[in-house]
Every structure is written in structure tokens, then in C-alpha cells.
Amino acid sequence: MSNPSLYNESPLSERQMPTPAAGRPIPLPNSIRDKVFSLADELPEKERTEFWALAVKFVRRLKDKSYLPVDKALAFLRRSTMTNEGFFYFMDILGASFVDVFQSVGYEDFRWPTIQVPDGVDIMQPAELDAAISSLPVEAQEDIRAFAKEYGPRAWVKESQSLVPKVPNRILWLLDHSALPPQERTKRLHAALGVDSNPWRDKRNSTSMAQSLAICKLFEVSPSWLLSYANGSRAVLSKSVVSEETVSIYLVMDTAKRIILDRYVRAWIGRDKA
Amino acid sequence: MTYQELADVVANMSNGTSEYGYHKEYVPAYQEFALELGRRLDARLSELDISIPRAVRRTGVPTLAFASIYRSRKPGKGYSLTAFNTAVLCYNIFHISVHEFLSDETPTIQLPATLQLVAKTMAKLSPAKRREVRDELARVREEASKEMDLDLWREPILGPRLYELFNDKYQSYASFMGYDNGKSGKNRGPYALQASILNGSPDNPDGLRTLLRGVLFVSFRTGIPIDYFLAMDYTPYADIVYRGGNGRKVPVEDRDTLYVLRWLLAFPMEKQADLIGQMVAKYR
Questions:
Q1: Tell me, what DSSP letter sits at residue B242?
Q2: pTM exceeds 0.80, yes or no
Q3: Which helix (H) or strand (E) holds B72?
């Protein structure tokens, strides 16, 4: 792929992702903000008007000012950093794919994060599981999803029903499940969010887009994953929603449950080959 | 102070926590309960047919010293055995569950998610098929016992059980225990909190010296009988249930299913999950 990767130390990614001084906000990579608004500008006139009306409403709510003039609100939007909430809000109105937006400004395609596998345990990485499930017949895919849903953590189902992706939950997931040693995880998180941050306490979705992208870089996960919806019905991917949903459940499981789901999928692969 | 009264103290506690992570009313209440436990211990020991030193030596557990048992039964001293030693005492000498020792009632334990899967799968099978699963597992067990020690009662199981429980609920320790993260007194992080209540500090990672009051506190807060945290195989000591389709609790009474469950419990976590995965894939 010719797109400069988020993780390559190319001049572009250096410019987009400066290493932040502790506690200082990172400027939003303008390309993403501009891309979101350029998509809005491409809308037919009626939808475009509606979009900007909603955008003004959003800024007024954000700034808690019911009297903010339209031009000031729009100017604020055009130059300010964007929170995750804002990003989801506008993407929801636009109905655009996260992956497309990230890709169009040079970020990497959707990629599942890697999980820590204990020594001597043979289980598939999320990407492998995704590929394995996608290769099975539809009937098998549905059966595996039903099994994972029935057996997976109930809280996942709750999270998946939420309209806004739980980015803080995903950051916590990264802290808990990353293959990095605990000290290194905290160090990286502090580098991205500032030393005063406490992800256990701060469960709001107010992390800025720029901070989210910095976290992606520091934990080596793709932004499309961090910012994607947990619920497959609001898919950010063009491929199988079924496998996406199953792998999302796989990610929030502990090792014992992952082993069971892994064996279940392997049994289906064996049956399929036979 | 009876078991039920202590449970009521925990249920009606204020939000403030002491420096050890417990709620401040708990420790004085437990100390009263410990006096009652000392009396219970004395009554149980008086019923024994054999001498205490001999009964203790038979258990083969080096941490269980009969001197501490004598001290705990003395009037006015209060019960002071660790959670692990209490479990050894109850299971190997009195042959009752810890819950029964504490409260005179038989506990009811709901299976964790992985074993619930086994119970549900077994319930769907015919008696002949269930027998087949049991025989198959018996073969696996015999084969595995050549390579690993599948004998129960070797070490405390507390750490893995807590891990299993939090993962089943998909929660951190602190929120699972009903604390607001970051507001839990001096112990900010969830792990510090766990360490302080269960004495699971880095020099005691296995919980061998965890006090009974700590495990009992977790048991009260979670509403799960204490035997779940102490017995590697809790099936003989409790009524086993699993959550049925509409949320009602279904008892596991089939002998083959109970055998399968107890044999699975003896396996280490990875091997157990591997066997469950294969079994469910084959019979579901």
C-alpha cells in the first residue's frame, strides 16, 4: 500500500503526530478534521444545510451557549480540536465509514490489535480468527456468533447497544491486555494523555481525536479499531459483520474463554474441510 | 455475633473505607464473630474421634499447625486461622463446607461461565451420551495424570477464582466490589485494593496467608459462598446451580455431569478450557 503508515517514521507521520510534552494537548491532525468537513461540503444542498445547522447546534451545546452566533460557531468548529464525541456525531450524520476517512488522509487500514498469549497456549490472534471465521460458510459464521454472544461477557452486549463507541473502555482494554509490561503501558499512556490522567477515573468520552490518535500510535493499534463501534450493526468495515462482532467479543474475553471460542471455531474449520 | 448478623453489617455499611480497604464497621464486627467462631471450633473439635495432632498430621498440609488450632478454640481468644487453613480444617478434618462451619447452612454455588457451558451442554444430551462424555473425560484424565498432578488440595485457589469471577462479570476488582474507582480511600488503584483486603501482596501472591476475614468480606460483597474461593473442587460441598435461559437457577443433579465438573475443576485453567472447548464443539 502506498499510503504512508501511521507507524512509519515518515516525515508526514512525524508532522501529524508530534510527541507531546506531558499534559499538553496535541494539535488535531488537520487533515482528519478537514476531511470530515469536506465530506459535508460535498453533500447536496438540502443535506448540507441540515448538516451545518446540526453542527452549530453541537457547538452551542458544547460551549453551553445558546446565543452563540452562527458564524462564530462555524469558525470555532473549523479551527478547534475535535473530541471523539464530535467526531462520532458528525460521522453519524454523514453516515461515512471511519475506515474510508482514515484511509483517505493516509492512516492505516483497519487492523485488529494483537493480544497477549500465555506461554504454552495455542490460540489464534484476533486477525487470524477474523480471517478463519470469514472463510467459513454463512451458517457456520452465524452459529459461531450466536455461541460467542450467548457465552461472552454480558457487559459486552450492554456496551454494544450504546450508540457511542466506548473509547475510554478501549483505552482501558489496551492497558489491561497489551503485551507491554505494566510500567511501559502507564508510561505510554501518560505520554499520550498527560501525567495527571487517570483512565480508571475518567470514563467520559471527552478524549480528543488527537489524543486518541496518539494512543493508537503509542499502543500500535489502528485508529479505526480504537474509534470503531463495538456493535457490528454499525459496521465500519465492508467485510463480514458477523466475524467482526465475534472477534469484538473475543477481545474482551479472558484467556480461558478465548481458548474455548478458539476450539469451537477450529472444530467448525475441521468440519468445513471434511 | 452470628454469620447472618455479620452479613447484615456488611450489607448496611456506610461508604467510607478504612485504611485497609474494608469498610470501617467490618473489622470490629468480625472480631465479635471470631469469638463465636472460636466456640464453634471448640464444639466441632470436641466431637472428633481422633486426637487433634493426629488429624492435623493426616492432612499433610504443612501450614496447618495444631498450636494455632488450640489457640483459636481458647475462650476469649477468638478464631485466628488463615482462610486456607480453615478450608483444610473443614474439608479434611470436619468433612463439611466452610460455609456450613460458619453458618450451619449448605451453600449454593452458581457455576462460572465456562463450567455453566458444560452443564448446559450436558443437560441437552441423553443419559447415554452423558455417560459417553464422562467416560471420555475419565480417559483424558487418566492420560493427563501421568504428566501432571491432578490431585486436589495442593495450593490455595483464591487468586485464580477471583480472576475468573471478575472476568465473568467483565469488571475490575474495585467496581466489582462496589467501590467507585479512584475514590477508594488510600488505595487508589484496583490492584492495591485487592492486595490490601486479601493480603495478596507481591510476597504473598498465592494468598497462602490471606486472613479469613478478607475472603469472607469478598464473599459477603459478591454474594458468593466462601467455598467458591477456597475449594479447588467445590462440587461435594455445595448445591451446584447454573443460570437457565430465563435467568432462573437450574440445579445440577445428574451424577455424570457432577463427575465431569469435578474432574474438569482439577485441571489447570488452560487445559480445562481446552477440554471444555473441544467438548462443547463436539456435543453442542
A1: E
A2: no
A3: helix B66-73
Residue B170 has its nearest CB partner, among A121, A151, A153, at A153
Phi, psi at residue A211, to the nearest 5°? -65, -40
Model confidence over B85-132: pLDDT tens digits? 899 889 888 999 999 999 999 999 999 989 999 999 999 999 999 999
Please tell me whether residue B120 adopts helix, strand or coil conformation: helix
When computed from its CA atoms, the radius of gyration of chain A, rounded to whole angstroms, is 20
Amino acid symbol at A191: A
Q: For residue B201, what pLDDT band results from cuts at 50, 70 and 90?
A: low
Going A83 to A164 to A233 to A154, the CA torsion angle's sign is positive
Question: Residue A179 is which amino acid?
Answer: A
Report the amino acid identity of residue B174: A
d(CA B197, CA B192): 9
Any A CB within 8 A of B189 CB: yes
| Beta-sheet strands, E only, within chain B | 108-110, 239-243, 249-251
Residue B23 phi, psi (nearest 5): -75, 150
Q: Where are the alpha helices (DSSP H) in B125-157?
A: 127-145
A151 versus A211: the higher-pLDDT residue is: A151
Sort out which chain A residues have CB atoms less than 8 A from B280's CB and list them.
Answer: 260, 263-264
Dist. CA B267–CA A31, nearest whole Å: 54
Tell me the count of A-B CB pairs closer than 8 A: 70
Residue A132 CB neighbour total at 10 angstroms = 19
* Interface with A, mutate which of B270, B271, B275 (most A CBs under 10 A): B270
